[in-house]
Amino acid sequence: MKGENKPDDINVPPFETEDLRRNLVIFLDSDFDDPIAGGKRRIGNFRWGVYIFYDYDGEPIYVGQTNEMLRTRIRRHLTNQRTDAVAMSVLDPFEVYEIEVYPLPQFQNITSAADRTTARAYLNALEHAVYDKAVSGSQFKAILNEKDPPVPIVEAEIPQSFRMRVVSEEVA
């Protein structure tokens, strides 16, 4: 059977794991228009943003945020490195079929503490808005997050997103 490991392949990751890793790299290296800097930037290289994981039925299963780079945070979730969502069995990386990200290029190069505070407030507001939008569009009106997003103290407009499948036809 295709993708099946033989007993002597004990250190070889399963086919599905390799497929997810390979497609995750393609997703994170995909170009996205950066209206602030101009031109294109790899989607995974945006520092600030919100992301949604969708299951095989297109249902949102997890909404998160990061200010450490989308690449780092999403990889940590989906390569079984330590995250609260994975550790608490809220998120199974093999349930993720698509990822959608909402990068915030306006905060890409901030350095001051005041700017970080402003960016954090906006990021929290965006996560809340995206979470609410995902829940309202869900058939089940629920998402598996371990906690609700922070209550916003500012308003955030949901920016352009980038969504892509991270599971190949061979696995799906």
Explain this structure to me?
With 172 residues, the protein is an alpha+beta fold. The chain is built from 4 helices and 6 strands, in the order H-E-E-E-E-H-H-E-H-E. It has helices at 15-28, 70-78, 84-87, 113-137, and strands spanning 31-33, 40-42, 49-54, 60-66, 98-103, 162-165. A hairpin with a 6-residue loop joins strand 1 (31-33) and strand 2 (40-42). The longest helix has 25 residues, at 113-137.
Please describe the topology of this protein.
Blueprint lengths: L14 H14 L2 E3 L6 E3 L6 E6 L5 E7 L3 H9 L5 H4 L10 E6 L9 H25 L24 E4 L7
Antiparallel strand pairs: 1-2, 3-4, 3-5, 5-6
Strand line-up across the major sheet: 4-3-5-6
How would you characterize the largest beta sheet? Answer: 4 strands, antiparallel
Write down the Rg: 17 Å
| Strand-residue proportion | 15-25%
**Element pattern in H and E:** HEEEEHHEHE
Q: Averaged pLDDT, please?
A: 88
* Terminus-to-terminus distance: 15 Å
Overall structural class, as computed from helix and strand content, comes to alpha+beta
Per DSSP, the total helix count is 4
